[in-house]
Amino acid sequence: MLIDSHCHLASQKFDPSELDSLISRACQSGVSAMVSLATCLEDVDANLTIADTYDNVGVCLGIHPCDVHHAPDDAVEVISAHMSDPRVVGIGETGLDYYHPAPEGWDETAFRHRQIAFLRQHFALARACGLGVVIHTRDRQGCDSFEDALEVYQSFASDVRALFHCYIGNETNALRVIELGGLVSFGGVTTFKSAHDVSEVASRLPLGTFLVETDAPYLAPVPHRGKRNEPSFVRFTAEHIAASRGESIDEFSAHTRDATLRFFPKLAARIEPMLNQTILP
Known about the structure:
Elements: E1 2-7, H1 19-28, E2 31-37, H2 44-53, E3 57-61, H3 75-80, E4 88-98, H4 108-129, E5 133-139, H5 144-154, E6 162-164, H6 171-179, E7 183-186, H7 196-204, E8 210-212, H8 234-245, H9 249-263, H10 265-270
Parallel strand pairs: 1-2, 2-3, 3-4, 4-5, 5-6, 6-7, 7-8
Helix pairs in contact: 4-5, 7-8, 8-9
């Protein structure tokens, strides 16, 4: 049983009429649960509706760093009203994005400060409600966003677990996250020929310290690179990493599933009836 630990089922790139077939294809590929993430307040209701319809979908709610300039100052407080909802399994997608330039009307310093302030608010909410936080970091060069996000995480690490998603950094930085009690997750980039170093990192990390994801509809893995991504495609990433680790797909699915459900215990409660079933083809 594979779990897509990070996708965006409410994305405009997915027509709502497609969801039945998308989720059916995922299940047929052995991907039996998904975590769909909101990136702005406008995404919240759509994600909750999806989770209402599909018991194998859990939802995370957050404000993406590229959306903080649109979000009201109390956006995280608005999200907090949903934290007791059984459909909500985590907080995010939040984080720091230093890749995209500051939006019109903002200078770079002010925009980064707002991202950091929002990230701290997400962590404070996570501490208050006992949920994990899903982190986005991206830089045009270097790893300043990772370093700044890790610094924020360090101040909350005794109470909160963080998941650094779509990880493309080096092994040293992955282990720094893990040493704080956090996780990293690997997506389709891991399968790219140009990302051999990322694949090597995934091949060496200890069991239970990493997850797999699609980030659908973005960053489809080989052999679908360049196309719209979807949850069923996480199997290609899983098979690639499993081969690099010398594991069978069943072994790989088991330990990444267990790590995912430890990070998202509310997701485990949602899909409990499936956990003892053998679903992989």
